[in-house]
Each structure stands twice: as structure tokens, then as C-alpha cells.
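Re: the request from the purification team.
They wanted to know what the chain is likely to look like in 3D before they choose a buffer screen. I agreed to run a prediction and write the result into the notebook, where they can find it.
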Amino acid sequence: MAAIRQCHVYLEVLVAIEIEDKFDVQDEFVVPDLLGVKGISASSGPKSHQLVAIYFDTPDLRLAARGITLRRRRGGDDSGWHLKLPKSAGVRQEIQLPLTRSAKIVPPTLAEQVLVYTRGQALVPVAELDTKRAVTKLLDAEEQVLAEVADDRVKGTVYGETTRVERWREVEVELVKGDEALLKRVGKRVIKAGAATGGSANKLGRLLGEAVPKLPQSPAEGTVGAAVFAYLRRQTDALIAQDGRVRRAEDEAVHKARVACRRMRSAFKSFSSIVTETDTLQEELRWLGEVLGEVRDLEVIQARFGRELDGLDGHLIVGPVRARLLDDLKHQEEAGYERIREAMNGERYFALLDALDAPYSFTGKATRESGSELAKIVTKEWHRVEKKHETAQSIEDAHEREIAMHDVRKAAKRARYTAEAAGFADEAARAEAIQEALGLYQDGVVAQETLEKEAAKAREAGEDTFTYGVLAGLERAAADRARAKFPKLWAKLTS
């Protein structure tokens, strides 16, 4: 069971991974005897069910466009609300809730799960599927259920300005305790009996057909435009995938969402000769990254101080330093999450997601062969790192030089993301090494600043601040070590 957070209210829902294959069959099709399939020793059934499912979506079918189904189903062994989210080919994540009194209002918990797709649009009934299902269970020698074969006769109704009705038959094979090799063997037997591999990922997609909107298409395969498009699409999907997890404050979710924002911003800057008119997108991604960044920084600093306090001898911990450092920062983190949720429920966030889903404006260079063009861009970004480093080292004032070295770190991060997007692993690793090395120093500086602020609060409360000084000393030493090691690392990576 997994707990889903909705405005600080926790509801228990069933989360399952569904692995299945679908097959299109003619009305006269006969489900074959599957006892001869390796691993199957017996079968049970068929058992008949009448399933009536009402499907919900936005009026413009935003969920269907991404292969998502949200339904209220009566009948069978799993009556209730079902939300199915695509994971990978043939594998879907399903979230289930019990039936609610209302058949026309989506439970808030599920509505929140798809808010990143609906983006403020209402969820309304768009279709109904009335299915006569005959289920046969496939068992092993110990009578464990390996898989279920569902023979479905379907009546589908599409709601809208005019009502449309379609009828068809299909067969589903869903794994229970079996493995994918078994699924493949059963599928071969079903196809041999006259079935065809299903043309739609789900019944709703088949019913809605051409009414489902299409997402933007990639430029021609093998071009630099296609490579950039694919990378941006992956990062958009990564951001969307983390939306629900961020709302539930799950581990690493904020970090992964912020990284997706940073990668996209970096790509738009680095590949500006390929994809244009992205200034507004970059600004909005920067805004979202900053909203997410507040909580992420607090998560990191709490873990850092927690490890350091755990490593100190007891006599070095004086006063309620652990409570102030960890609890105070935790309260700040919780407040930061509230600001994140407010932002992620707002029109600005929804508009950003819509813009990321819209077609990109590509230049003529997008049609060029990807290899050489990407190599030029990766090289250009690394030269930018070298130039930033040269500029920083020419600054005599130590404080100003430190600020300039922070710019070197940011340039290295951009070079890393660019190389990763282009598929240049060695170049990405080199840039990442620079980024991480400078990051160690920067993290130490930030930690010292945080300790200074928290010590001031402790002092005002009349608390002993000795331990804050101990921690500050540890952070200063760590930062100094990182700074001292960097010249040697730079020489090694640039020789």
C-alpha cells in the first residue's frame, strides 16, 4: 500500500504494476487450450463478469493523448476507481480507490495525480465501456496463478456533441505471478490460434481513435534536430513524472524535477542554433527551478548537518543544537513545500507545461547530420568553461575570484548537460568532475553561511553556540581542502 497526500490528508490506495499483452480477434475466435504452454500445469474458469466503466478526461482529451486512463468501473473482482499511468512498453502503473458515492465526480486524490496533465481543465465523462468478460486463470504445479486470460466482448460509447457506439472483441493476457517469458509463450499460442497483436494500448484509445490529439512530432531521424527534440522530450517527461511525487514530498523528487528544469534550460541555451524562440521558456524554467531549489537546498543541508552531528563526540554537542539545526530547517522545508504546491497549482506552472508540450521552432541547421553538428556544440561549451576559468584566475581580489569560480562551476554544469544530451560520455564526465569539485567548495561556503544564521538565532535565545563553531570549523576545513585540490584536478583534465 502507498500513502497519497492530498492537502495533508492521507488516503490508502492500491498501487500496482500491470504487465499485459492485448490481442485483436474476430468474433468467431476460439481461445486456444494453453495447458501445453511451458510452465502452465492447470487452468481455472472461464468465469464471467459484466464490467461497466465510465472514463474521465478533459474535453480536449489531454489524458488520452499521453496514454493515461482514468475510470470508474463496476463489476468484476476490482470494482472501483482506476488510474493507469504509462510506465514503459506493456507495463503500466495502476492506482486504485474504492467506489465513491458519486459516479460523476473524480476523487480529489486521483484528480491531483493527473493535475500535471489536466492543468486546470475539468475532468468529465468522455466515454463508457460495457464489457462482457470471461476470465481464465493459468496455474502452475503449486496452483499459483501465473496469468489471467480475459476474453472481452466490448460495447464502447463515446460522449460528446453526438453519441457514437462501437462493438469489438479482444483478448488480454495479464501476468500475475508469472514472468515475461511466460507472457511471450502464451502470446505466441494466442497468435497461432488466429489473433493479431493489439493495435491500441488500451480499449479507450481504440474507441476514441483519431479524436485523440497528437503530441508534437520529431524532426527527421538522424538529424541534429531529432537528437535535440528527443532530449528535450525526455526532460519534459521527467519533470512531469516527478509532479505527483513532489506534491507528496517523496525522497529525491524535488531534486529530480529541478535537474530536469536545469537540463532543459541548459539545452535551450547550448542548442540555440538549432531550436529558437525559447527565451520565455528559459525564464519560466528558471522560475520553477528556483521554487524547487529552496526545498532541495534545505534537504541537502539537513542531511549534511545530521551526518556531521552524528560523527561528533558527545561532549562537543552543547545545548539544543540538533533540535534547532534540524527541526528549524525542517520547518523551513515544510513551508517551502507549501510554496511549491501553491506554484504547481497555479496558471503559471500550467502554462509552462503547455509551452513545453507545444511544437518547437527549429532553424535550418536542425536538418543537418547529428554527429558532427553536436560535436561542434559540445566543443564550444567546453571552450566556454576554459574561458571562464581563465578569466577567474586573472582576478587578483580573492573574494571576486571566488565569485568568478562559481561561474566556472555553472559553465561546467552546462557543458556536462550538453555533452550528455549529445551522447558524448567522456566529455560529460570531464565537465562533471569540474562541477563536482567546485561544488564541494561551494557547498562548504553555503553551509558556513547557514550555520552563521542559525547560531545567531541560538544566541538570541540564550543558547550555547559552541557546537555551531565546531561545525563551522569542519565546513571551513572541507571547503579549504576542496579549493586546494582543484588546481591539480584542472591541470589533469585540461592537459
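For the purification team: Residues 2-211 form a domain with the Hypothetical Protein Pfu-838710-001 fold (CATH 2.40.320.10).
Please add any questions underneath this entry.
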